[in-house]
Amino acid sequence: MLNKLKNILELNQIHSKDGILVACSGGPDSVLLLIFLKSLGYSIQVAHCNFQLRGQESDLDEEFVSNLCQKEGIPFHVIQFETENIAKQRKESIQLTARNLRYQWFSELAEKNNLKYICTAHHLDDRIETFFLNLFRGTGLNGLAPLEIIKGNRLRPFNSFTKSEILDYLESNGIAYRLDQSNESTKYERNKIRLDFLPEMEKLFPEYRQRFQENFDRLEIVKTGLELKKQEFLDRYLIQDKNQFAIRIEHLTTDLEVLWLLEYFDGKYNQLSEIQKLIQSQKGKHIDIEDFRFTREENSISISNKKENSISLTIHEIPYEDQYVKISLERKVESFESNTIYLDFDKVIFPLSIQNWMPGDRLQPLGMKGKKLVSDYLTDRKIPSNSRSKTLVIKDKNSILGIIGHCCDEKFKIENKNANTLIIKLKEF
Fold first, then answer.
1. Is residue 309 packed enough to be buried (19+ CB in 10 Å), middle (13-18) or exposed (0-12)?
2. What spatial distance separates the first Cα and last Cα of the chain, rounded to whole Å?
3. Which of 375, 339, 182, 427 is nearest to 264 (CA)?
4. What is the per-residue pLDDT for 49?
5. Which of 130, 243, 306, 418 lies at a CB distance of 3.0 to 4.6 Å from 293, suitable for a disulfide?
6. Is this prediction's pTM over 0.90?
């Protein structure tokens, strides 16, 4: 297994000097990942989240990971979240809140400690469970295609390992780990799939994991090809003039082209027929999808943002429903908080503006390679649709500096701890 991991990392050009933040819960998967990366000589630090959801068990998990890192001589970071209270405030599920808190903190740690990758121990069984969850939820191809080994600064080198491989290695080598008893509860959808559904499937198809690995590889090829075609199509045919968009009817001849247009404006597959009916209607007809109005023109469809509360302000604090944005300037920031982005003040070209994100807005999220649509960034992080539509970006004269409450653009990150730092914090009343 160790040699297999070494080959995977080398094939993906992950170098031993690359700083890696390893997310470790104390469970078998992340413990083995930590030990393997340490054995291979990688420069790693460990992050552990105590979500305080299992009482003393959560504290024992934290203690276990802390002791393991001390024994291995690995820098250790820990944070405690009042997850239930935060979930109630945000009106989200505990699982979604925990996920968002975790990755927000990981991003901050990686930035603060100049670490290139955030590494998690997702394995093949996790990917299969996610496939069925997304299949039953109707997420489409994006939800069915597998998690890549590398996506931006996210690293998942265990993608092709099975759970049984991991457990067998730990047992045969006498390596201790923690077990989360909540994983045995069928009140969670994922657990039902793992505990009830997949064992029955294994009786019918004993080699289903191998078949899934092969099909995941095929799906990734298809997804990559379609994404390239989609971008070529939008770049060529979708015309933008400030906040107005248009596309000629003659370029919307297939369901796939209509779906690409819909997805660009945060629409969903089940709204496909609405656009198709609009295409067949008379000039002047319109429909509203999410925050956008699609209008039938003579030979085209025009799209405009219909938000009446769209904001573009240049002030220090702005009330925004139950939250507000606070901007401050500091020198030598000592600690990094969640829901906050930190920018190198000396790289900013004034004036600044804060506004709702628009289709086509792009930035290079912190730690990622290449630019990404704001809409895709929010979707990848499973931000609910109603929250996505309210998300704000901050811009200077030339660029998007960051997505408020989420991330800054890579080129505006803090590289010198003594730099003048522009702090933009999303706060609740």
1. exposed
2. 51
3. 375
4. 95
5. 306
6. no
Give, to the nearest 10 degrees, the angle between helix 124-137 and helix 208-237.
Answer: 60
> Taking a C-beta distance cutoff of 8 angstroms, is the pair 132, 196 a contact?
no
| DSSP conformation letters of 104-125 | HHHHHHHHHTT-SEEE----HH
CA distance 94 to 190: 14
Structure tokens of 300? 């085209």
Check residue 291 and give its pLDDT. Answer: 80
Question: Which residues neighbour 145 within 8 Å (Cβ) at sequence distance 6 or greater?
Answer: 216, 219, 220, 222, 223
Strand 353-356 to 392-395 pairing: antiparallel
Joined together, the tokens standing for residue 425 give 């914090």
State residue 71's pLDDT score.
96
CATH H-level superfamily of 2-201: HUPs (3.40.50.620)
Average pLDDT by stretches of 10, the chain with 429 residues = 94 92 97 97 96 93 97 95 86 86 90 93 95 88 82 93 97 96 87 95 96 93 92 95 90 96 90 95 92 93 71 45 75 76 88 86 86 87 79 90 93 83 80
Copy the structure tokens of residue 28: 């078998």
- In this structure, what are the phi and psi dihedrals at residue 276, rounded to the nearest 5 degrees? -65, -40
What pLDDT is stored for residue 239 in this prediction?
95
Within 13 Å, how many C-alpha atoms sit on residue 284's CB side? 1
- Domain coordinates in residue numbering, the chain: 2-201, 238-305, 312-428
pLDDT at position 311 is 38
**Dist. CA 335–CA 351, nearest whole Å:** 27
CB atoms closer than 10 angstroms to residue 279: 15
Residues, the chain: 429
2-201 and 238-305 have identical folds: no
Query: What confidence score (pLDDT) does residue 309 get?
Result: 40
- CATH fold label, 312-428: Phenylalanyl-tRNA Synthetase; Chain B, domain 3 (3.50.40)
Give DSSP secondary structure letters for 390-423: T-EEEE-SSSEEEETTTEEBGGGS--STTSEEEE
Residue 245 exposure: Cα atoms within 13 Å on the Cβ side: 21
CATH 3.30.70 fits 238-305, yes or no: no
